[in-house]
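Need tokens for this chain, all 170 residues.
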Amino acid sequence: MPIPETDFRSIVRLLAESGIEFVVIGGVAAIAHGAGRVTYDVDVVYRRTRENMQRIVDAFAPIEPYLRGAPPGLPFKFDLTTLRHGLNFTLITKLGQVDLLGEVAGEGTYAALLPFVESKEAFGLSLPCVSLEKLIALKRAAGRPKDFEPIAELEAIRQERLSGRADFQP
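Here are the structure tokens for all 170 residues:
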């Protein structure tokens, strides 16, 4: 499947309107906190209950999820059994790229992230995003070189907030 440009608004709207329990992390969360990042996918940590995973499967069926980076024609069925037996899925869909994560490094289950969730505005929607501090911690825990620059930017945003600059608006 060719990779379409990610329609962030449609993906997060689909997640929210389908009643899926999720927390936004990654680049979309960084943007919601005021970062000037470019991101290519929507990263969410989802609650791993049978009911929530069934809502994910039902909501994603029309957008035809397929494993990102997998060879064309690989037999892949995104259903409840697949979701239950897997944990983290990097998907390509008709709406673009979505990473469905059951867990991420740095205390990253849905339940563990709940105390750190803030409602943030992004793409015209109110989204459950990890706090700025937790987002920085998650990126540090991932230990990926590609996160060094975003961590520095997020740290600068945190410093601006702590200094109480009146002209700073995320």
